[in-house]
Amino acid sequence: MWLHEPRVVVTNPVADDPERETERLAEAVEQLRVSVDRMLEGAAMGDAEQLEVLEAYRMFANSKGWMRRMEEDIQRGLSAEAAVEKEQSAARARMSQITDAYLRDRLHDLDDLSNRLLRILTGQGRDTGAEMPAAPILIARNIGPAELLDYGRKLKGIVLEEGSVGSHAAIVARALAIPLIVHAERITTEALNGDAIMLDGDQGIVHLRPDDTVAAAFRDKIAMQAEAQTRYASIRDVPATTLCGTTIGLHMNAGLMADLPSLEGSGAEGVGLFRTELQFLVRNQMPRRSELSALYSRVLDAAQGKRVVFRTLDIGSDKVLPYMKPNDEPNPALGWRAIRVGLDKTGILRMQLQALLRAANGRPLTIMFPFVAEYSEYRAARLEMDKAIERERILGHAIPTRLEVGAMLETPSLAFAPRAFFEEVEFLSIGGNDLKQFFFAADRENERVRRRYDTLNSSFLNFLEGIVRISDATKTALSFCGEDAGRPVEAVCLAAIGFRTLSMRPASVGPVKHMLRRVDLTALREVIDAARREGLETVRPAVMGYLATVS
Ligand code: PEP
Ligand code: MG
C-alpha cells in the first residue's frame, strides 16, 4: 500500500521581499508548465482521452486569473508557498459548497496543480524514506487525473477518501482498468505506508491491515473469480442461448476509445450504447467536428464491422460542459438535458450528426437519441438527421449504406406514446437507470433512496412488459442498456419477460451469458408470473429460489 503524497507543510507563511517571492513563484509555475508539457508528450502515445485531461491541466497552469491572485497575495506580504496555499484553500472551500459534480472535479484539478506547485516550491518531494512497492494500492485524499497517469498501469488499485465516480480520475482509472474505491472515510489518516490492504472493487470494500481470516476469505474469493473467469473465457465465443433455445444478443456499453479493445475480449456482439458525452466532458473547449469525426471513425475501425450504437450527446443534469454556461436548475435530472438541449441548440446536434456521418464515410451507421419524452421530439431529431444526410449528399460526401435511427426510452411517458411512434422508430433502447429513477421517483444519485426500490419489483416488471408487448406488436427492435442489464439475476428476468437484446459493461458479458445458458426462460417466466399472481411486491425471492435449483 502506498500513501499518495503526504501533505506538504508550509513553514514560511510570510516574506518581506515580494519581488523575490514573485520570481520564485514564476520559476515554480514555469517548472510546473514544463512538467505538464512533459506529461503531455509522454501521454502522446496513449489515449486521446488522457491527452485531453492533460490539456485541461495545461489550461489551468496557464490561467492568468490564478497567477494574478497569487501575485497580489505576495504583494500583500505572503510567501510564494502561502499564496499558493491560500488559492488552494479558496478552491477547497468552493469545492465543499459546490453540488455540481462536474465543477467540483474541475476545482479538484486545480487542487492537484496547487499540490504540485507546493512541492516544487518547498522542495518536499515524494521522498519520505519509504520505498514504494512494485505494484501498490494507492491511498489518497483525492487524486487528479494527471497524477494518476504519472503512476500509470503499475497500480493494483486506488482508494480515495473523497472522489466521485464521474471524476476525470475515475475515467482515467477505468481506462487503465485499475479498481477504484471512493469515499473511504478516514483512510488517509489511518493508513501508513507499507500497510497491508485488501480491496474489493466490485463490492466497494476496503480492508486495512486485514487479519488472517479476512485475508484467507479474500484469497478464496480471488481463486473463485479466477475460476469463473476461465469459465467465462470458455464460453466467450458461444452464443447466449438459454436451455429453452432462445438466444439473447449481448452487447457492451462504452464511452472511451480505451473501452473498445473489450469488444474482442468480452465476447460482446457489438456496442449497444456508446455514450458520446465523455468526449465533450474531458475537454476544455467544444471539440471540433473534424476531431469528433476522426474519433468516431477510429471507434468504427476498432469495432471491425460490429454494430456500434452512437448515442448523441447526453449533457445537462450532472454532466455540465465547462464551456457552456451552467444552468441553475432546481431539478437538473428533470431539467434541460440530452435531446432537449440538442433540439434547442441545434448547432451542436447538427455538428455531431455531421461528424458521425463523415466518420461512417459510407459504412453502416446507427444513431440513438437520448431522453426522448414524446413522439414529436423523436420526429424533430429524426428530421435533423434527414437534413444532415441531405446536406452531406449535396456536398458530395458518402452516405451510410445502412442507417438505423432509434430512441432511448428513459421517461415513463414514452412507453405510452402513440402506436405510430413505435411503428416509426427503428429501434428502442431502455435506459433503465433513468427510467427506474423516474418510475419510482427515486434519484439515482441519492444514496438514501437509490437502492430502495427493487428492479424486480412487480410494478416495474409489469411496466417493462408493457413496453415489450407494444414493441413486439409493432415489430420494433427493443433492447435494455441500463446497469441492470449487466446484473445476471436481473438480466435473466429481463429475458424472461421478453427482452432479446441487452447491453452492459464489458465485464458483465461473461457472468450474464453464463447465467442465461443455465436457465429455461419459460420456467422462469412461470415463476415470475406466479409471484405476481400472489401479489408479491418483488419477484426476487421466487426467482432466487428458482435459480438455486438450476446451478
Ligand atoms: C440509462 O439511463 O440507463 C442510460 C443507459 O443512460 P445514462 O446512464 O448514461 O444516463
Ligand atoms: Mg440515461
What is the secondary structure topology, with strand pairs?
Layout: E1 2-3, H1 18-43, H2 48-61, H3 64-75, H4 80-97, H5 101-122, E2 137-140, H6 145-151, E3 157-160, H7 168-175, E4 180-181, H8 187-190, E5 197-200, E6 205-208, H9 212-234, E7 240-241, E8 247-254, H10 261-266, E9 271-275, H11 277-281, H12 289-303, E10 308-311, H13 339-344, H14 346-360, E11 365-369, H15 375-395, E12 403-409, H16 412-415, H17 419-424, E13 427-430, H18 432-439, H19 458-473, E14 477-480, H20 488-496, E15 501-504, H21 506-516, H22 521-533, H23 540-550
Parallel strand pairs: 1-2, 2-3, 3-4, 8-9, 8-15, 9-10, 10-11, 11-12, 12-13, 13-14
Antiparallel strand pairs: 5-6, 7-8
Helix pairs in contact: 1-2, 1-5, 3-4, 4-5, 6-7, 9-21, 12-14, 14-15, 20-21, 20-22
Bound molecules: phosphoenolpyruvate (PEP) and magnesium ion.
Phosphoenolpyruvate is lined by residues 273, 275, 314, 410, 431-434, 481-482.
